[in-house]
Every structure is written in C-alpha cells, then in structure tokens.
Design goal:
With 190 residues, the chain is α/β, with parallel strands linked by helices. The chain has one domain: 3-Layer(aba) Sandwich (Rossmann fold), CATH 3.40.50. Helix content is 29%, strand content 21%. The strands form 2 sheets. A 7-stranded mixed beta sheet has the order 5-4-3-6-7-9-8, with helices on both faces. A two-stranded antiparallel ribbon has the order 1-2. Helix 4 links the parallel strand 6 and strand 7. Helix 1 packs parallel to helix 2. It is globular. It binds S-adenosylmethionine. The site of S-adenosylmethionine has 23 residues, from strand 3 and helix 2.
Length: 190
C-alpha cells in the first residue's frame, strides 16, 4: 500500500492526498473501497454492477460485503483480459462474477440495486445513461474519479440538469460522487 500522494498531487480540491492510500494508480484509494463496501452493507442490494474491475480489489470488498449481507451478487466488467483473470482469482469463493466485457455492451440481467462506475473516465456518464432503465427511483450510484482533474464531473452534471439524478461530490483525492436516481427506469419494477 502506498500513500495516494504518489498518484495524486495535492490540490485545492484535496490538499492532503497523503492521508489516503492505494495499492497502485489503477486501483481505487483503499479508504474509498471501504466506503463502497460500507454502502453495500448499508443498502443491502440484491444486484450490484461495477464497471472497471482492474485487479479486483474493490470487487473483492463488495463481494465480502455481500457475503456478510447474506444475499446479493456483483457483476464486474473489465475489458483487459489479464486484469479480468486476476480479479476473478481475487474474488474466488465470493458472490462475484467477473465478465471480460465492455461496459457499454453489458445488459444488466435484473434491476440494479447499487452501481460503482469506475471504468474509463470518458465513459462513466454513458454507462449511467445505459443502466438507468434498470434502476429504480432512489437507487444509489457511486462514480469514481469525479475530481476536477478528470472529465467525469461535468459530464455527470448534464445528467443532473436533465433531471435523471442528483448528488453530492466527496473531496477524496480522485473524487467520488454519490448519485441518487430520481425516477423509475423501465426495467426497474420487474
Ligand atoms: C480505475 S480502474 C478500476 C479500479 C477498480 N474499480 C477499483 O475500485 O480498484 C479502471 C479499469 O477499467 C477498465 N476499463 C476501461 N474502460 C472499460 C470499459 N468500457 N468497460 C470495462 N472495463 C473498462 C480498465 O481496463 C481498468 O482496468
């Protein structure tokens, strides 16, 4: 584990990145992974989707939270074959399915109870638009890398302006936004 300052320099948005830790630049800050797992514990979802598994550290934490919940499963998407294999190994024995698939081609198999969007910074708003039909009013979506040094936040603001979601942005080194879905999607009542 390394100080996050190795990956994110101090900024006005987050002046003390050294207070967070991360295994590498591709994996989320450990403290953010813990937040995501805690949300899974707090919200008790049945079906969780993660985009961008990378090496599977947050997938493992979500899987362990689901196991503690006693119900629910995670599908995590990763386009890189070697990373998908490593994530699968890391999540062995947990209620986690790693799919080597592009997030914008994935079709959820049932209503999404919680999502962690953490793939390409260019695609997260499009992922949210794609999965909204499977989300009910009140579903929580956590989006990573919404700090000002990434392009994600302004793209999400378009969804806010369109009335699909409302949210709050947390001042973590890379930024995390918690978004509440505001209307039932067409598949969410199934
Ligand atoms: C920031 S890392 C994910 C970190 C991980 N979610 C975590 O919490 O530690 C982003 C990953 O998304 C993958 N990726 C990028 N675009 C993708 C897409 N459209 N669909 C699926 N995976 C994608 C990359 O290969 C990379 O491994």
């Amino acid at each position: 584990m390394r100080p996050e300052r190795d990956f994110t320099p101090p900024s006005a948005f987050c002046p003390h990145p050294e207070r967070w830790t991360a295994i590498d630049a591709a994996s989320a800050e450990r403290e953010v992974t813990e937040l995501v797992a805690s949300l899974v514990r707090a919200l008790q979802p049945d079906y969780v989707v993660e985009t961008g598994a990378a090496y599977g550290y947050t997938a493992q934490a979500i899987g362990e939270a689901l196991r503690r919940n006693g119900h629910g499963r995670l599908v995590t998407l990763e386009i890189d074959e070697a990373r998908a294999v490593e994530a699968e190994e890391r999540c062995a024995g947990l209620p986690v399915k790693v799919l080597q698939q592009h997030s914008l081609q994935f079709v959820p198999e049932e209503p999404v109870g919680f999502a962690w969007l953490d793939s390409s910074a260019e695609e997260r708003d499009r992922e949210l638009r794609r999965y909204l039909p499977w989300m009910a009013s009140g579903t929580l979506v956590a989006v990573h890398d919404t700090g000002p040094h990434f392009p994600v936040h302004p793209r999400l603001q378009a969804l806010v302006k369109e009335g699909f979601v409302r949210g709050v942005r947390l001042r973590t080194p890379r930024g995390v936004s918690l978004l509440e879905v505001l209307a039932d999607g067409m598949h969410s009542a199934q």
